[in-house]
Every structure is written in C-alpha cells, then in structure tokens.
Amino acid sequence: MSKTKLITFTAFLFFIFSVSFAQDRTIDSLKKNVLQNSKIHDTTKLLSIANLIDQIHSNDKRGEILNGMMGQLASKNLEKTNPQDLHVKYTKYLAAYYSNLAEYYKLKRDVVKTMSSIDKSMSLFQSVKAYDEMNFLMVNKGIFYSQINDKEKAIQCLFSALKYFEKNPEENQDGISYVNATMSTIYSDQGMYDKAISYAKKTIDHFNSKKKLEGEDEYRLTEALVNCGSYYLYSKKYEEALGYFNKAMAYFKKVGNGTYVSICQAKIAQVKMEEGKYDESESFLREALNSDDGELSKANAYINLGDLFYRKKDFVKAESYLSDGFFISKKINNIQLQEKASDLLLKVYKENNNFKKALEVYEFQVKLNDSSKMEASKNALAQQQLKYSYDKKELNLKLDAEKKTAAKNNWLIALSGVLLLVLSGGYFYYRNNRQKQEITVLEKDRIKQKLLLSQMNPHFIFNSIDNIQSLIINHKETVAVSYLDRFSKLTRQILENSNENYISLKEEIDMIENYLSIQQLLYNDKFDFRISIEKVSDTESYFIPPMLAQPFIENAIKHGIKNTAEKGMIEITFSLNQEKLCFEVIDNGSGFSDEKKQSNHKSMAMKITRERLLNYSKNKDFDILSENRLDAEGNLKGARVIFEIPYIYEN
Fold this sequence. Notes:
Serine Threonine Protein Phosphatase 5, Tetratricopeptide repeat, three-stranded antiparallel beta sheet, Heat Shock Protein 90, 23 helices, signal, globular, transmembrane, alpha+beta
C-alpha cells in the first residue's frame, strides 16, 4: 500500500469530504479554501489533504509538501489535550504522515530514513490499538526488506502480518490476500516461479470468491492476473502467460485505463518476442504506444522495442529506442526500467563499437548497484547506533534521578540503594550472559543442521549421477534422458528445501513420490510402491525436517529388492498415533543379514540422518528400529524400518 491509501483501512474515514479537489488544484487553493478557514474542523482539513495526496503521483513534489502539512497539523493537535476519539484520529493521521514519508525516502533510496519512518508509523498505529493498519504497514516493511535484498527479514515481516490476519480470517481476507500477493513477488525475485504462481493464484482465487468486487478489488484482481502472467512468462510457459495478460487487458480496456492497457500490450509483446514472432511483437508494442502517452508507458514500450530490434540485430534502431526509454526511466526515477535499459544499451553500444558510451552506461550501473548496497549496509549500522544512543540516554536519565534522590536521603538509604543496584546489576548481567549462551547454542545447532543436510544432498546426487552414467554406458539413451528429466525436477525440489529447517509433510511426500518414480524407471519397473497416510488430516499443516526418509527408502530398494527374482514392493507409511508422527518403510526383499545390518548403519546417509534426528528430537534414547519380517512359518519375507519423526503442527 502506498501513501495515504493506508488510511482507507481505518474506521474514522467513513465519510467523503463534500468538497472534492480535482487533480489540477494547487496547494495555494487548498490553503485559501480549506486550511485558512477557521470554520472547518482540523480533522476535515486533514482528510482533504489526504484525499489530495492520493491523487498526486509519488514523484510529484507537491505530494511531499502536502504530506508535510498533514504531519504538522496532526502533530500540533496531538500536543493539545483532546477527547479520546480525536486523539485517535490525530494519531492515525500522524502515522499516515510517517507512512507517506517512508515512500518518499524509498524513492530517494535512503534506506535508514525509510525504515525509521515505517517504524514510527507502526508505533503510532500500535499506540491507539489500530492493529489492522499496523499489520498492513508490516507487509509494506516486508516489501521494503525484499527490495534491499534482505529476504529473511522480509519473510519474517510477512508471516508476522499473516499470523495476525489469520486470527480472524473471515474479516481479514483482504489482508491475507495482500500478504499472498507480496509473497508471490518475493518468490519471483528469487527465481522461484512455481511458488510465485501459487501465491498469485491464491490472490486471484480470493477476489474471484467474492460475490461482488468493490472499491479497488477489480484493480487488485487484475494486478494479480498481470503478475501471474509475468511469472508464467519467466517460466517460459507462454500459452498460460498470454491467457492471464489477455484477461487483465480486457478489464483495463473496460475501465478505460490506458496506462495499464499499454503495459499489458507490452507484456504480450514480450511473449511474442520470446516465441520468435518479432512482427507480432512489434505490432503490439506500437499499439502500446498508441494506448497511452504517459511517460511510464512510453518508457516501457521504447525499452521493449529496443530489446526487439537488438534481437533482430538492427542495432541502430535498438540504440535509438533504448536511449529514449532510458532517458524517460531516469526522469520518472523507475529503477527497474533503468536497470533493463542500461543492460540492453551496454550490449548495443558494444555491437556498435561505441565503447565510450558503453563505459558511461557501465559506470551508471555500478553507481546504481553500489548506492543500494551502501545504503543497505548503512541501515544495520544506523540501527545499532540508534539503539546505543537510546540506551545511553536512558542510562543518563537514571543516573541523574539517582543523584537527586541520593542528595535528599540519608546515608543509610543511599547505601541500601547502592546495594540494590549492585544486586540488580549482577542479576541482569547473569541473565544477559545466560541468554547469550542459549542463543549461541541455538545458532550452532542451526548451522549444524544445514551442514548435515548439505552433506546429505551431495551423497544422493552422486548416487543418481552414477545411475545416469550406467544407463548411458549400457546404450539406454532414451531411458537416460527420461531419468535425467525427472532427476532435474527432484534436484530442484532438494535445492528449494535445502535452506529450510522444516518443510510440510505434503512437500516431503511429493519428493518421495518423485524419487521412487525415478528408481522405478532405473530398475525397469522391477518394483511397485505405495505411500499411505494414516490419521493425518492435513499434510500441509505438519512440518518435518526435509529428506529424513530418503536414505531408508534408498536402502530398501538397493538392498531389499535389487537381487530378488519376484517383483518387489515398497510400502511407506506416515502415521500419527498419540501425537507421535512415525515413518515406516517395508519391503518384500531379502531382509537384513547381520553383515548388511551392520554396514547399513555405518553408511554415510544413515549416519547423517541419525545425527539429524538426534539433534531435532533432543532425545538421547532415540532409536531407529530395523528388523526382518517373517511369515507364519518363520520364513523371511522382507525387512521393516520404523522411527519417530519430530514435527511442528501449524493449524
């Protein structure tokens, strides 16, 4: 949410100011007709300022001036003693002022001031128990963290807001949808387009489930359609991308929004460009220029035309369009378009042997990247400095108070105070050290889990590569290609989950199914498999450490059925009994001999998995049960492995 649109979520804006200001009204007109009129209440003046700010583009300097006026008026009223309802209104307007201020600092790439303004705004909303507005702003904070590439903090902010919204999901569907839409963009920035599409579709489903779209609902729905189309475009799924872009464009044509019609046409042109349909792509880009003459639309269309002619190796036209688009993108301060234009211009200048201009563009890119990185590093230092200054100020205040008290009291009270201070200091020193030790232990455990999982992944990958090599050596190229395709999908799943301490049970089962399908292919369908879920109502609500089961399944295949004449059977069960989640794998193979049993437990994967389970469970008596299966006559009919899996349940 940007600028004072945040205010629309508050309860006090239940009416529309009767005198609406057109976009071309000046600040002088506002001062003369409203602000200097003593008959108009200050809350009405603040609302009129907020309405006017919403009609002004973020880059318009008038917005900053108006926002300053709103902050000054709200702050002045808060210095007075007001009834509770007025106090809440003025506090919310001051919070909106800081929220807007954060947007302006963000455009200037001032990380420290942006974060400081967001925190002040959130603190003000919290002070009047405006938790809805505070958590919408928490999402904005997550978006900002994502923009400065601090993905971990971004995700923390988003899930904090999501946790609040989901306490009352029926009333907070818009908030949940806002988080989902933001999550989709973060996953897209990380190149995880499948997850980005998943979250974008959740947003689309939310709006489609409404009986009637109100306010900005249609716009938000269409924005999600454009984003979803973009993720399909980045995934090279062009048919799906076109479907979403066409739906979005139909809506924007219906409401007469030329800017977004132009953007959709440019998106469709990108799809045609990727498909090698250059003439169709150029046609859509020409339509995009005709649909809207705004600077954003022009810059977008020009840069895409430059890309098109670069691909067609017409470097003269490419340079002309890219130069125009680059100039406009700098004028409107659009960082994304600047980055795309400069990347393409650098290539074109090299093709045209214009190394002087290529160097200028390269230096611009370095400056653009370095400024962002520099501000990001400043932010951490500034936060520490702010904390230090605050603690120092608090300490000085306490010392001054103690001096004044000591001067008024006798020596006995003074000595008692000193003794109490020493005891308190000793206690807090002890507690602080204890907390530091606990944090250190937790960090070491977390690092150890990542190291163990990183050892697991190469072990599995090397085994799979050996299998592919064996197929190629045996001249089974078709099978090898099929195997490699499935293996790449499984590798992507492993890489996505390797940074996670926990994944959902559903994701683990999907990974197991893919792994077993690969092994079926390798062993020419020599075995079947079955995965059962018992007494687990929702596999997406149970979270377990990733890849715990894989080594035992691999063992069942290699040592259980590899050398048997009859068709093998692998049965896998996840069951919940008395709040204990158990994993069990059964095969109908040759079972465990003493020698096999001993060697299996000494294998790298088994040893690592055992260490991981011990670390997660914190149970020294933890054990993995492995045994042979016998029929009624005592004949060997396979092997069985079972152990308890530590889990987290999130409802």
